[in-house]
C-alpha cells in the first residue's frame, strides 16, 4: 500500500470544541461552518477515495468528487472538508442526507443529477509524501491555496479576522455556524481540541404535528414531521416549551383530528401514541440535525397559522 493510502487509513478528523461565545482575538482565524458531512479525501494515482468522520467509506456516494484528482495539483494528497448540497443558494442538510445514505449505484447516479454536491475544503493533511499534521495551520493553508484549481465543485473556505461580525452575518443568512482556529495550531488526529472552537446558533423549523405522545392521559410531547415531496417524514418529538393553554388546545384538537393510522412514512415505534391528521403546524427551535434526520434538542416556540404544505425539508 502506498504511503498516502496508509496515512489516509490511519488519520481521523480533528474535532472542534463547542463554545457559547467567541471573543474576537488576533490569535485566531474564523471560518464559516458549513451544514454538511465531514469528509476526508485521498488523492493518489489520479483516483479519489473518501471517508467520513467515523472512518466509513463514502467514495461511492459522491462520484462527482473523482474530479478532485484534476483540481488538486499534487501526486498525492489528503484533504479535510465538508460535502454540501445547496438549496436556494444555501447548504441543505436534509437533502445532503439523501445522498449520504444512498447505497444503490443507480439511485446514486440519479441523485447526483438531482442533488449535485460541492466540497468545502479547509485543510491539507498530507502532500506528495509528506505528513503535514505537525505543521502550523498557516503553512497548511498556504500549501493548500497553491495546489487548488478553481472550480464550481470545489470551494476553498475563506478566513475572517472578526468572529463576532461573522457570527452575526451567518445568523442573518441562516447558515450553520462558525469555527475559530488558533493561529499556529497543529492538526490533532481524532482529538477534540480547544485549538478549534465552534459556535452555532439554534435553528428554526416549521413542523406538522402528526401525533401526540401520551403520558398518564396527558400530552407528553408532539410528534413532528415535515414534507419531502409528497412524503411526510417523522423528524422528532418535542414537549419542552409547551404552555398550559397550548396543552388545552391540543386536547381539543385531538378530539377533532384523531386518526386511526399514522400519516408518517417512518412513524416512531413507541407505545401510547395518538395519531393526528396533518393539519396543525408549530414552529420549532432546535440545535442541529442528526445523521438520521431528527432534530436535536427541539423546543416548541408556538403554534403557527401556516399551512402544512409549507413545512418542508
Helix content percent band: 10-25%
Given helix and strand content, the structural type is alpha+beta
Q: Give the DSSP E fraction (strand runs of 2 or more residues).
A: 35-45%
The poorly predicted ranges are: none
Helix-strand sequence: HEEEEHEEHHEEHEHEEEEEHEEEEE
Largest sheet: 7 strands, mixed
Number of helices: 7
CATH-level-4 superfamily name of the largest domain:
DNA ligase/mRNA capping enzyme
Radius of gyration: 22 Å
Q: Mean pLDDT across all residues, rounded? A: 94
**How many strands in all?**
19
Question: Topology, please?
Answer:
Elements: H1 3-10, E1 15-18, E2 28-33, E3 37-44, E4 47-52, H2 68-71, E5 76-87, E6 90-91, H3 93-100, H4 105-114, E7 117-127, E8 130-131, H5 137-147, E9 154-156, H6 163-173, E10 177-182, E11 192-199, E12 203-215, E13 218-228, E14 231-238, H7 244-257, E15 273-275, E16 281-286, E17 288-289, E18 295-296, E19 299-304
Question: How would you describe what is shown here?
Answer:
- With 313 residues, the protein is of the alpha+beta class.
- The protein folds into two domains: 3-199, 2-Layer Sandwich (D-amino Acid Aminotransferase, Chain A, domain 1); 203-310, Beta Barrel (OB fold (Dihydrolipoamide Acetyltransferase, E2P)), CATH 2.40.50.
- The protein is 21% helix and 38% strand.
- The protein contains seven helices and 19 strands.
- The protein has helices spanning 3-10, 68-71, 93-100, 105-114, 137-147, 163-173, 244-257; strands at 15-18, 28-33, 37-44, 47-52, 76-87, 90-91, 117-127, 130-131, 154-156, 177-182, 192-199, 203-215, 218-228, 231-238, 273-275, 281-286, 288-289, 295-296, 299-304.
- The protein is elongated.
- The two termini are 42 Å apart.
